């Protein structure tokens, strides 16, 4: 299984090193803020991304927002929110793993043919999911 880094240990190390305030971007789990004994501001990329897409993605109204389906999937809610706010469609990827960081099979649900796909992932340690999804 994937062993997580001890967030509390990292929080303590940052405090001991002299940090008196932490600014993060899209924490994987918002509960991590509670491990710190100093103020933590968790910023979100979504508002900036939503402003950026209409200006820099050609034919953005013909895009589709794509997400992986996870067992406990707040990411799907986030992706449908992004798609709704951009007034575009969304699609899903169902992924089956043989073992950690090794995808056995991916199934695409939704219409992405001849469309620009905006791939959204909750965590990119190897970027394998995004690369695999881009090949679909």
TrEMBL record:
<keyword id="KW-0460">Magnesium</keyword>
<dbReference type="GO" id="GO:0002189">
    <property type="term" value="C:ribose phosphate diphosphokinase complex"/>
</dbReference>
<comment type="similarity">
    <text>Belongs to the ribose-phosphate pyrophosphokinase family.</text>
</comment>
<keyword id="KW-0067">ATP-binding</keyword>
<dbReference type="GO" id="GO:0006015">
    <property type="term" value="P:5-phosphoribose 1-diphosphate biosynthetic process"/>
</dbReference>
<keyword id="KW-0808">Transferase</keyword>
<dbReference type="GO" id="GO:0004749">
    <property type="term" value="F:ribose phosphate diphosphokinase activity"/>
</dbReference>
<dbReference type="GO" id="GO:0000287">
    <property type="term" value="F:magnesium ion binding"/>
</dbReference>
<dbReference type="GO" id="GO:0006164">
    <property type="term" value="P:purine nucleotide biosynthetic process"/>
</dbReference>
<comment type="subunit">
    <text>Homodimer. The active form is probably a hexamer composed of 3 homodimers.</text>
</comment>
<dbReference type="InterPro" id="IPR000836">
    <property type="entry name" value="PRTase_dom"/>
</dbReference>
<keyword id="KW-0479">Metal-binding</keyword>
<dbReference type="GO" id="GO:0005524">
    <property type="term" value="F:ATP binding"/>
</dbReference>
<comment type="function">
    <text>Catalyzes the synthesis of phosphoribosylpyrophosphate (PRPP) that is essential for nucleotide synthesis.</text>
</comment>
<dbReference type="InterPro" id="IPR029057">
    <property type="entry name" value="PRTase-like"/>
</dbReference>
<keyword id="KW-0418">Kinase</keyword>
<dbReference type="GO" id="GO:0005737">
    <property type="term" value="C:cytoplasm"/>
</dbReference>
<dbReference type="InterPro" id="IPR000842">
    <property type="entry name" value="PRib_PP_synth_CS"/>
</dbReference>
<comment type="pathway">
    <text>Metabolic intermediate biosynthesis; 5-phospho-alpha-D-ribose 1-diphosphate biosynthesis; 5-phospho-alpha-D-ribose 1-diphosphate from D-ribose 5-phosphate (route I): step 1/1.</text>
</comment>
<protein>
    <recommendedName>
        <fullName>ribose-phosphate diphosphokinase</fullName>
        <ecNumber>2.7.6.1</ecNumber>
    </recommendedName>
</protein>
<dbReference type="InterPro" id="IPR005946">
    <property type="entry name" value="Rib-P_diPkinase"/>
</dbReference>
<dbReference type="GO" id="GO:0016301">
    <property type="term" value="F:kinase activity"/>
</dbReference>
<dbReference type="GO" id="GO:0009156">
    <property type="term" value="P:ribonucleoside monophosphate biosynthetic process"/>
</dbReference>
<keyword id="KW-0547">Nucleotide-binding</keyword>
